[in-house]
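tool_call predict_complex ligand=cobalt (II) ion
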Amino acid sequence: MSEFSDIKLTQMAKRAGCAAKHPPGYLLPLLGMLPALTDPNVLVGSATADDAAIYKLSDELALVMTTDFFTPIVDHPYDFGAIAATNALSDVYAMGGRPIAALNIVGFPEETLSPAVLGEILRGAAAKANEAGIDIIGGHTIKTDEPIFGLAVVGTVHPQKVLTNAGAQPGDLLILTKPLGLGIITTAAKQGQDKSGAIQAAIKVMTTLNRQAAEVIGELGAHAVTDVTGFGLLGHLRNMTAASQLGAHVWLDQVPVLPAAWDYVHAGIAPGGTHANLRFLADWATFAEDLTKEERLMLADAQTSGGLLVAVAADGAATMLTALHDAGVKDACIVGRLAAGQPGQMQVSRSKA
Ligand code: CO
Ligand code: CO
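tool_result ok
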């Protein structure tokens, strides 16, 4: 792969990965202007800002449909393809589904990059698809100035076993399965400021499928699940609490974070998307006064291919946490609790007490 070592894909992207997403405040009013969905087979549509659409085919079978694509989040084309695929597959897992097939979505600049670079992107994606037990069976490519890559993924789920973001109950505990800081670290790397080489640890996290976590969660049962991507932990929790008509408490000192991300955020490094997320949260999150700007940014950090956020009955949370750790999901932590309250309102404190 040394022939690609001088490629700096992130320098071609104005914004990287899920941080290139429009913030929720941009999208929600627009979706509200569209005609209401009327097809009774739509079990989950756009109204609840969930991870994927669910379409019922029969009483035993529903399709999970999702697409995610973005500009380069890392320099190496193989890693970019693997991260984009892992991220796209995640939305199927976040609905309790099992992926069955995927399609490539490609924008590629034919003048500035050799086709072999696209080959590496596709190879990275194919490897992750295979790890997920599926093939990528088609796709579509257009010419663009910045490389763009992602997948459309189709999965299946039993209509009674869909894990939406709307089923959380008061008193449920919140489990997060991957550490935060991915947006901050990838931004440091893009700016040439990743002094400690933390990008390697971030790539490892971003190319870890949420498959193992989803299998444990599906087996033990959860009330609500979503994955943490471009809106950050608090942005995705806002969607879950709003959809579930609940409030939530989050305990900063329980939230797993890649250590270098603290160094970089204190050095003033964070993606534009992370700042936009924090501005959006002004109406939704109440931070304890002793939480610094950097700590608030971390909880809003735009993740790419982040972990699952799970609402689980309090009496089952310890069992689930142990099962996750045993399944290799070592970073999983209990990070907060759902509570009755104004839908979507979150209280953030330094610790549980
Ligand atoms: Co998602
Ligand atoms: Co998504």
